[in-house]
Amino acid sequence: MNPSARLLALHVFRHNPRDTASSPRLVIYQLEETPGMTLFIALSRIRETLDPGLNFDFVCRAGVCGSCAMLINGRPGLACRTLTAELPNQINLFPLPGFELIADLSVNTGKWMRGMSERLQAWLHLREEADVDAVEARMEPELAESIYELDRCIECGCCIAGCGSAQMRTDFVGAVGMIKLARFRLDPRDARNAADFFDLIGDDSGVFGCMSLLACQDVCPKQLPLQSQIAYLRRSMARQALNGLPPA
Amino acid sequence: MKINYTDVLVIGGGLAGLRTAIGVKRRGLETLILSLVPAKRSHSVAAQGGMQASLGNGIKGEGDNEDVHFEDTVRGSDWGCDQRVARMFAHMAPKAVRELAAWGVAWNRVQRGDREVVINGQRVTLTEKEAAHGLITARDFGGTRKWRTCFTSDGTGHAMLYSVSDQVIGESIPVHERMEALALIHDGERCQGAVVRDLISGELSACMATATVLATGGYGRIYGISTNALINEGMGAALALETGIARLGNMEAVQFHPTAIVPAGILVTEGCRGDGGLLLDKDGHRFMPDYEPEKKELASRDVVSRRMAEHMRAGKGVKSAYGDHLWLDISNLGAAHIDKNLREVKDICHYFLGIDPAKDPIPVRPTQHYSMGGVRTDHRGESPWLQGLFSCGEAACWDLHGFNRLGGNSVAETVVAGMLVGEYVADYCASSAGQGDFSPALARQFVARERASLNAIAAASGGESAVALRTRMEQIMTDRVGLFRNGADLESAVAELSELLTRSRNVGLRAKNLDANPELVLAYRLPRMLKVALTVALGALQRTESRGAHYREDYPARNDRDWLNRTLAYWPEGDDLPRLDYESLDVMHMELPPGFRGYGINNVVAHPGSAERQAEVDEMHVAKLDRYASQAALMPFKQWLPIRYRRRNSRLDDPGK
User: How far apart are CA B388 and CA B8, in angstroms?
Assistant: First the structure.
């Protein structure tokens, strides 16, 4: 025991929804902080030494796969790259709200994201099959960079957990859904036009459901430009709606 | 008990598995993907620096083509690879990158005119051609003669995985997430699917399929410190191994990447050095030119990693609480370049080290990174021992990488293999071999066996701790089956791993529930990981030579006379150790006969056929045929490709056709 090390108290939500004997509760784990400790290291240590049955999700543990989003002292974030040194002695960990609970800190973001992608048809709609033998179509270097900028979403679910609209309506596509369509809209390789995108997102479960609270932008671990993209998408969808009105 | 039926069961939701599934779906087959995690969280997402393909668009890629890529790959493998697979791969990589471009990957593009880059520590101005403007650009990577690595900033794997995964959704291919295959269902000759465990509910079911594809990634997590995702525990290799029939190839071929950060073990891309970053020691001295004056920091990965370790052994490492390390300095590239092309590296440095790489050097050391070994298949991706079992990507050994993989060749391999193996799987399903009946009784028998085994594990009150045994395994692999190996250490590693395997059958659990339960998962994976670890350690012990990433201090020379072969490991049921066989590589049919790689001293023990074959090859070059004709004369390979992929690749200066 290092006398100068902090003793952390991790207050961790525990519940197994499939076990009728289980009820939601907080379990407190005491752990000595070590240099460079992340919540990945802390939770792994708890599982290794204190509670081998504790459920949580880490895959890359490097901040790129989006598996480990949880509520960290009330704020959605990636646990793997959160240093305990930046947190007080008491650390409260809850599963990400807005998603089906698997157990403890593990939630089913994958199922939610697949459903959203299917609803929004969030894949590049090819104009025609690629000729893989031919020299590729050209693209302006800046355009490629702008598309990549919007393509950096890791589907971690933080934006949904932080979203007021998503709390109120379960069919809201959230910032993650909108940034995806903004990305395909910017991409000249996608065959869809403004009217097609309007059909997918021009209602209250899409751009018009956003109340502009914009916590999504605050909590996005990839600092995606969600605020400006949602605003831009909403303006162009409103314009599309007006243009699409039948003549008086 | 539930039995699902499908044409093609793909196990693994990374790039290789996803691309395979798209291929078979487009051939009119039904397919289903199992994935431990949501597909977009697969380890493919972590590939940073890029994907090699010889497009030759940029000025530093001028003159690049399949021939150069092929030769780099073979040299990189230390002549351990299957050259016809390397040929197929070099031919396919441009097609793969172009297909991905059409599917939405925002590849960085050539900007015409002048740009400043850093080469060998110096700022240099390159002038890109007008004609190449807007085509896909490439950066430099180690062990390559051209700048060939196509990229999207340093999030290449992310961009690729998302594009392909989105296409899978667009094709309505089901991905059964949080599902784990526990065993392959087979009758000793033919694979008929897998026993599947739902990681949420714990439910066991069978999935019966005409073809089963293992695309489960590598086995890096048998090592204590690895750049791999936590899910890369070698379970695909274990599934094959536990059939008792299918063989694993070259399991001892394990790559250590030069630059993982200390202590977290997270990778920072080879693109750091490709873009001009330098390796420095505790005195701030750039040491790589002292060892490898020609390629310096951009020597092949195995070479750079060994030189770094050698330099630290000489006392030139930086001391830290987590052991010695060296510095990777990319501050010379400038903040603007890092913000644009190395932003993930910047994030990693910020969040895990609290430093800004535009100002501060990054603490790095060689760390386990890639599994060249895997499920041994033929060039079509099928196991020669178990019909209907296919494998591709890092999980497989078809064998593109031999004993050392070049940076940028792994993500390229995932999609190329997916494109090819998807076609061959579809061919298999259409052939008479693919018409065998399913045996539901066999499926029930396999599910019952797995259920009994899980129940026994959950009920056991043994005194062993799975965590302690696993930690010990990781320590043994790191200390004795690592970058430098020797006979005594390897012998003791095999003995102790074998003892751990016995002890792993006596693990006691605290959490007894059969649904979502990480303790149960560790308990049933541990013996499988230990079996995989034993194939690595035993393969390394038996191979008394040094080749690529397999370096024996007691046998420092590459020995083509005795060891120009591939290790095959299998594990007959009831045996205590895996058995090893060897298949030799055919020198007389090599397009590039074995030679000196150009690193360190030339101490290769020559194969008796090498000189004879070299003379034949030289004669062909004297004949001065065009490059396609001379290649076809030396080692024809087009007949191994699916017909749809046989056409030549067009380039700016070469219409192909």
Answer: 10
3-state secondary structure of B168: helix
Contacts of A19 in chain B (CB under 8 A): 513, 515
CB-neighbour burial class of residue B422 (10 A; exposed 0-12, middle 13-18, buried 19+): buried
pLDDT in tens, B4-38: 999 999 999 999 999 999 999 999 999 999 999 99
In the DSSP assignment, the letter for residue B367 is E
Peptide bond into B263 cis (omega under 30): yes
Residues in chain A with CB shorter than 8 Å from the CB of B170 are 121, 123-125
Rounded Cα distance between A161 and B12, Å, is 28
Q: What is the rounded CA–CA span in Å between residue A183 and residue A200? A: 14
User: What is the C-alpha separation between B640 and B427, in angstroms, rounded?
Assistant: 13
Q: Edge-to-edge, what's the strand order for the sheet holding B362-371?
A: B254-261, B362-371, B326-329, B278-280
Q: Are B361 and B262 in contact (CB under 8 A)?
A: no
Sign of CA dihedral B554, B558, B564, B566: positive
For this structure, is B257 an active site residue?
A: yes
Residue from B65, B109, B226 whose CB has the most chain A CBs within 10 Å, to mutate: B109
Per-residue confidence band for B462, with pLDDT thresholds at 50, 70 and 90 = confident
Query: CA of B375: how far to CAs of B22, B31, B238, in Å?
Result: 22, 21, 9
DSSP B189-247: SBEEEEEEEETTT--EEEEEEEEEEE-----GGGSSSBSS-TT-S-HHHHHHHTTSSS-
Asked if residues B54 and B69 have their Cβ atoms less than 8 Å apart, the reply is yes
Which residues does chain B have within 8 Å of residue A18's beta carbon, measured at their own beta carbons? 201, 515-516
Cα separation, B196 vs B186, whole angstroms: 14
pLDDT tens digits, residue range B293-347? 999 999 999 999 999 999 999 999 999 988 999 999 999 999 999 999 999 999 9
> B395: alpha, beta or left, given left = phi > 0 and alpha = psi -120 to 50?
alpha
Asked whether the whole model's pTM tops 0.95, one would answer yes
Q: What is the ipTM of this complex?
A: 0.97
- Fill in the DSSP letter of residue B325: B
Cα separation, A123 vs A118, in Å, equals 9
Residue in chain A lying closest to B54 (CA): A135
Buried b or exposed e, range B596-617, using 16+ CB within 10 angstroms? ebebeeeebebbebbeebbeeb
What does the alpha-carbon distance between residue B164 and residue B567 come to, in Å, rounded to a whole number? Answer: 33
Instruction: Annotate A91-155 with three-state secondary structure.
Output: EEEECCCCCCEEECCEECHHHHHHHHHHHHCCCCCECCCCCCCCCCCCCCHHHHHHHHHHCCCCC
Min Cα distance B91 → chain A (Å) is: 10
Give the residue from B520, B525, B496, B498 showing the smallest Cα distance to B221.
B525
Give the chain A residue nearest B106 (alpha carbons).
Answer: A144
B139-161 tens-digit pLDDT: 999 999 999 999 999 999 999 99
Distance CA B403, CA A121 (A): 42
Residue written as token pair 């290649």: B631
Size of interface A-B (CB pairs under 8 A): 213
CA B301/CA B89 separation, integer angstroms: 20
Distance CA A140, CA B433 (A): 49
Question: Burial, B282: exposed, middle or buried (Cβ in 10 Å; 0-12, 13-18, 19+)?
Answer: middle
Q: Say how far apart CA B268 and CA B282 lie, in whole Å.
A: 20
Instruction: Tell me how crowded residue B336 is: count the other CB atoms within 10 A of its CB.
Output: 9
Residue B344 phi, psi dihedral angles, 5° rounding = -65, -40
Exposed/middle/buried for B486, CB within 10 Å: 0-12, 13-18, 19+? middle
Q: Which domains does chain A have, with CATH numbers?
A: 7-106 (3.10.20.30), 121-243 (1.10.1060.10)
